[in-house]
């Protein structure tokens, strides 16, 4: 019995050791690069895109316009390490694999886009609109400690926010859907909506405006405040709160 157990334990231990060693190697192999302090702007032409996906600490400023455009403002020695790739309709922004960059100032990325389909961020960057953006069925997905402020006119908006992310919305969208968790905070009182569907948990907060219909499911210590006189279908548990703003 002891022999069988030993034969079983040895391969498992070897696998665990190999995995741990690999993870350690990956971590220590990331080369740290500190910014030079010489801030430079670089334009990139990579074709049309309608979605933006970021990972890392990037602030993305979005301007509506007919032709897609990208301009990066960062330490000159870090610019080659900031990758921008267009795959289908998606613009992907990330740090080159194997590098841990340390900018002297926030890295700002300026893009122009005609129609918006999706914004997705992980890390502590954010998105900011410069003018009202337009789209049809739009999706937002934010995690980590991202901070975003968007003015949008669309038909539908699907929002997923988690972690400590903060989101400020304004504009006009008939149908909205929110899935909020963690300590995420969403401010959407200046977003005119007819119908809204909300699922919120943890200690998240949502301020929302709805004219016709509001479906709300709240749990944990989450809070939802709304303005308008919609027909409400609500369910709550824990110490969650739903209240109307007078």
From TrEMBL:
Entries under Pfam families matching the protein: DUF2807
UniProt feature coiled coil, ranges: none
Signal peptide residues on this chain, from the entry's feature table: 1-23
Keyword rRNA-binding: no
Transmembrane portions of the chain: none
UniProt-listed InterPro entries: DUF2807
Name of the featured protein: DUF2807 domain-containing protein
Organism: Chitinophaga agri
The organism's taxonomic lineage, starting at the top: Bacteria, Pseudomonadati, Bacteroidota, Chitinophagia, Chitinophagales
